[in-house]
Every structure is written in structure tokens, then in C-alpha cells.
Amino acid sequence: MRLTRKNSSETIQLEDGFFWSDENWSAIQQNQEYAINGALIIQEGRKQAGRPITLQPANKTKGWIKLRDLNKLREWQNLQEQFTLQFEWPHDQRRFNVVFNHKDGALESSTIKGTPATSLDTYFNVTMRFTEVSDGD
């Protein structure tokens, strides 16, 4: 899996140990209410953007990222730019146009050992939150 900054084509390679926890999101929005005479009124439409993509460690032994890459993610989250998230599994090559989801907390991280980082190669467990947007957003 990789995250690419669209403005500069810089890329961060992400390990495959991340789980997409909110993949069951529905693109259909529906409201139901009853009219005064008791008839059911259903309004339904397709969402044009806004799919959440939360990538979190599948377990404590996966979803690791080195501090050097975490620092780059922290820098990128403040750029207010769009990124391409590319899955690179044999069975899944999907690409998503995303922005960091600041509403729900773009990044959460902790060292895997629970101790302070001692170098840029120290590994962290990271949860990343993105929102899918259309190319024009």
C-alpha cells in the first residue's frame, strides 16, 4: 500500500498490515418519515464523496511505520492537499483520491514498545483516517 502526495508525487510506502475498519460504508443516504395520513415517505440519494477510509493496525504485530515516515505523514496532514491511496495486494489494486480526515483525528500513533523513540527507525503503530473526495473537491 502506498500514499502519494499529488502535488509533488512524493510517496510513502505503507506495510500491508493495516485493516480498513469502516469499509462497510454505504454510498446510499436514505431518510424515512411518515406523512400526516400515515403514508411512508422515503427520500434516497447517492453520496457523491465523503467515504471514510480508516486504516488501523490489524493487531499489535501489524500496521507498523517507522518514525521517519510518521514524521512525513504528520507534515502532510497539515498541507490541506489531496493524496492518492493505492492498495497493492494481489487481489486488490484499488486507488482512492483522499484528504486527511481531521474531523475524526487524522493520525493516532504510539511506539510499539510503549517507550520513547530512540531513532528515526523506531516503529510505531499508527491509525490513519482519510476521506475519499472526487478529483474536483
Explain this structure to me?
This protein has 137 residues and is mostly beta strands. The protein has one domain. It has one helix and eleven strands. The chain has one helix at 67-77, and strands at residues 2-5, 11-13, 18-20, 28-34, 40-46, 52-57, 64-66, 83-86, 95-100, 107-111, 123-132. Strands 1, 2, 3, 6, 7, 8, 9, 10 and 11 form a nine-stranded antiparallel beta sheet that branches. A two-stranded antiparallel ribbon has the order 4-5. The longest helix is centred in the middle third of the chain and has 11 residues, at 67-77. The chain is elongated. The model has no long low-confidence stretch (mean pLDDT 93).
Notable traits:
single chain, mainly beta, two-stranded antiparallel sheet
Approximate shape: elongated
Mean pLDDT figure: 93
Helix content: under 10%
The amount of beta strand, in percent, is 35-45%
Quaternary state of the chains: single chain
Unreliable parts: none
Distance between the termini: 23 Å
Structural class: mainly beta
Given the structure, what is the number of helices? Answer: 1
Task: Give the total of beta strands.
Answer: 11
SSE sequence, one letter per element: EEEEEEEHEEEE
- Work out the count of structural domains: 1
Biggest sheet layout:
9 strands, antiparallel
Rg, please?
18 Å
